[in-house]
Recover the amino acids of this structure.
């Protein structure tokens, strides 16, 4: 990872994907199943922390139910994304922060909160913004002493340090630091969807959120601690927005970080409904509406995917970030991000980097190479065996010379 695969996926997320592939192969079903289990677990954690902290006047499983409904309504919710995995540990950290705000004084609350956020950041780097969000909450809403704040920061760095030690042991520390941390934050953002499309898809979430907030503000009578929880949810929303702004892809996966906040206010909305007719009709209408809205979005977004399918080719290496060539074949390419790939191939001017790039081609041994980033001329000029082994047959297409 990072040295032989030019990408910025988190190391823990890459570890999960690797062993899912080794155990189950290229099965999309196992990703769907694991995503569903993670969502159920997250819903249970969120429901538990709301009940234990008496966030509502009524105790029920409504927060868990609404959490799952909102998650299922997100397009691509079945994709086992780093964002979804990372959110699990953000919620576990939030549970410890709320316990501290409730005046439970234990050092392990700070240690656990920081360590969970460290794991979250090693799955999806942009989620590290929550380290500042929760630190602010601990300082403002509780009397956290300096020693415990340092414990919190130390445990966050501990998870990061364990990952860096692994890559240092493999002699890949510098490339890990550059690809995952530095370039991950400096990469120019791109999105498969236009901003207008993201807003259209998210319009229903925004409408539910605004409706719930207005109802909560105008009707709810909260205790002092419930007010702190509500303020904590607003800080969570700031963290979700910051995560989206820092993201390189600006994809729909980022919506998962807003789900706990929307669920919190949506639950208040349902609890505060007093008239029986509305109490009976509104939940069914909203749940039916959001699931119907989600299905329509799935259908609209499926059409371009079908049109972009290509005939599978075996023994193909793509030097570029177009992964549509690999829908049904083995991936021979190290290139999953164009920017990082170009940076890696600049290493042809250095002996160590050049030898590693040459070994990549030797191990892959592709029958055809599609050079979308224009590096093959430099590769062939640097390595004589590559020049003898492949000939150019069309623009950016190289074919292995048969014996």
């Amino acid at each position: 990872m990072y040295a032989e695969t030019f990408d910025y996926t988190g190391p823990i997320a890459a570890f999960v994907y690797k062993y899912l592939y080794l155990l189950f192969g290229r099965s999309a079903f196992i990703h769907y199943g694991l995503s569903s289990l993670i969502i159920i677990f997250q819903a249970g954690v969120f429901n538990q922390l709301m009940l234990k902290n008496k966030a509502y006047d009524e105790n029920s499983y409504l927060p868990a139910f609404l959490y799952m409904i909102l998650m299922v309504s997100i397009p691509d919710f079945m994709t086992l994304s780093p964002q979804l995995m990372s959110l699990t540990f953000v919620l576990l950290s939030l549970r410890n922060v709320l316990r501290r705000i409730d005046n439970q004084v234990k050092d392990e609350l700070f240690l656990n909160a920081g360590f969970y956020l460290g794991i979250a950041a090693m799955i999806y780097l942009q989620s590290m913004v929550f380290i500042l969000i929760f630190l602010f909450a601990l300082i403002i809403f509780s009397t956290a002493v300096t020693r415990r704040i340092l414990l919190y920061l130390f445990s966050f760095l501990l998870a990061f340090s364990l990952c860096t030690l692994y890559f240092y042991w493999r002699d890949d520390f510098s490339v890990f630091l550059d690809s995952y941390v530095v370039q991950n934050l400096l990469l120019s953002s791109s999105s498969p969807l236009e901003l207008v499309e993201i807003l259209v898809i998210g319009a229903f979430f925004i409408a539910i959120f605004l409706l719930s907030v207005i109802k909560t503000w105008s009707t709810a009578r909260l205790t002092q601690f419930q007010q702190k929880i509500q303020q904590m949810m607003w800080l969570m929303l700031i963290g979700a927005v910051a995560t989206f702004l820092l993201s390189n892809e600006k994809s729909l996966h980022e919506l998962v970080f807003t789900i706990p906040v929307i669920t919190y206010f949506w639950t208040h909305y349902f609890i505060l409904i007093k008239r029986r007719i509305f109490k009976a009709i509104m939940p069914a209408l909203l749940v039916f509406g959001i699931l119907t809205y989600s299905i329509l979005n799935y259908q609209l977004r499926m059409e371009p995917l079908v049109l972009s399918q290509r005939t599978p080719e075996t023994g193909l290496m793509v030097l570029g970030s177009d992964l549509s060539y690999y829908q049904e074949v083995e991936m021979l390419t190290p290139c999953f991000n164009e920017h990082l790939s170009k940076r890696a191939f600049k290493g042809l001017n250095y002996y160590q980097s050049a030898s590693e790039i040459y070994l990549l081609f030797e191990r892959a041994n592709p029958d055809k190479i599609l050079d979308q980033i224009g590096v093959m001329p430099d590769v062939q000029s640097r390595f004589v065996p590559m020049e003898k082994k492949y000939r150019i047959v069309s623009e950016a297409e190289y074919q292995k010379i048969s014996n």
Notes: The chain has a mean pLDDT of 80.
